[in-house]
């Protein structure tokens, strides 16, 4: 990997475009690096993972509404939508939108955490949609996804958005743009201009993940993907963008991030270096915010030693800064203790999640968030006895530069009414690459089967899995079939409607 120093330049200073971060990100797309076999296998895993969580979410309101918007934009040379036959095709930016919402809705696909947060598999819907509309092969798709992951993870390691209350899609938009550029084999100049536009329009505040969290949490990544498609299209027509987008005197670093004196170190692959950073990311075994994954596993373990939950006086979770302030009591959000809160809010409340996991010993993407589950009196009592505390040691481990030493868990102290305590801790989730049971291909397929078994039949399941496992060999015609089709009578909102403008 090669270190790049990124800082703000005054308008009087000349910064050659080849020295700008946006250009260096674009070069990740255009450099002809060899494909690493292990990384390629992980791309296949993540496509399976995306399909699983998307199909399970198809009839949820945000996903159905995004689909009806896409249905208003048919294109016989376009891309496919999750759930619908591949003979029905739609403009790729709207397919990226609808499929992106489906992937994100359950908060159940992959993650990478470092200086900031990310769900790198959010890059896949726009890349696949553009591939389908432009007739690209499976090998092209593979190269595009690997480039997107490389850029996304590099930015998340280097530039913190959260401390400035900016949403993490500001790193997703340029990553997806680079991935589409790699897919299409575009020149560096075009990708550079598109990256700058994508960055310029993707900075949003984190209010989308604060307080009463709305369905926009699922829409935001799809919005970034749609912007990436449009940015590439515009740049391919010869249009330019604000420059330099990162380093400019009035641009994002100077006014939205660490300010005019900021200096960032961004590490990107050397020329010819295989794109392997996808292997540092990890998926979810449980449908909840990633910082909750390990603590759910810990709750399962600790419950075996508890005879009576009513005898619990207090539960304190000692954890990292991010966990405490984003999904813990450090957020100051009263909604995180509200039995009437939205699903989106509950999956960002470690207090709720730990209470339910402790009582039930299982976690389900629907039942664990059902209104009747959240309002159960004994759960509410336990829930309100739980709080989080930031522990500097866990914060340091969260940010450790060595992936093998990163930790996303915490230490839990349960105090009972008689004064006795139960104490345990966990570093990473069981499914994490360094966990007790790291996810492998069979685990991704098992997750797919669990989420889709009551929706699709065996033939459709075998067709899709057999196809995706041959990704590097797929023809453009086969790439069009990389879509899970569900029975028409199961799918709600399968037809265009007139409730909105489209």
From TrEMBL:
Its EC number is 4.2.1.79. This is 2-methylcitrate dehydratase. InterPro entries: MmgE/PrpD_sf, MmgE/PrpD_sf_1, MmgE/PrpD_sf_2, MmgE_PrpD, MmgE_PrpD_C, MmgE_PrpD_N. Residues 286-469 form the MmgE/PrpD C-terminal domain. SUPFAM superfamilies: 2-methylcitrate dehydratase PrpD (SSF103378). It is an enzyme of class 4 (lyase). Signal peptide: none annotated. One of its GO terms (molecular function) is 2-methylcitrate dehydratase activity. Residues 19-262 form the MmgE/PrpD N-terminal domain. Keywords: Lyase. Belongs to the PrpD family.
